[in-house]
């Protein structure tokens, strides 16, 4: 799965710390998500999408043929 979180965060002019505060998660969590080391829960994924005023499919992109379900 790919995502646009870093790109969206930058377009809003937010630093990682600001995004983490808005999502009520640690800065390390934001870093891990942005670097694709951590996949957010469905609840957090929806929270991220709502924060950017987008549908979840506009933030997280399923890549066909990946080993993820």
From TrEMBL:
The UniProt GO MF terms for this protein read:
DNA binding
Task: Cite the HTH cro/C1-type domain residue spans from the record.
Answer: 5-59
Record InterPro entries? Cro/C1-type_HTH, Lambda_DNA-bd_dom_sf
Q: Which CDD domains match?
A: HTH_XRE
Asked if the keyword Ion transport belongs to this entry, the reply reads no
Carries keyword DNA-binding? yes
Q: Which keywords does UniProt give here? A: DNA-binding
What name goes with this protein? Answer: Transcriptional regulator
Identify the species of origin: Lysinibacillus macroides
């Amino acid at each position: 799965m790919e995502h646009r979180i870093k790109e969206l965060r930058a377009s809003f002019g937010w630093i990682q710390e600001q995004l983490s505060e808005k999502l009520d998660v640690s800065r390390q969590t934001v870093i891990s998500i942005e670097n694709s080391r951590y996949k957010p829960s469905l609840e957090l994924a929806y929270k991220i999408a709502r924060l950017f005023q987008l549908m979840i499919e506009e933030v997280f992109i399923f890549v066909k043929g990946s080993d993820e379900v």
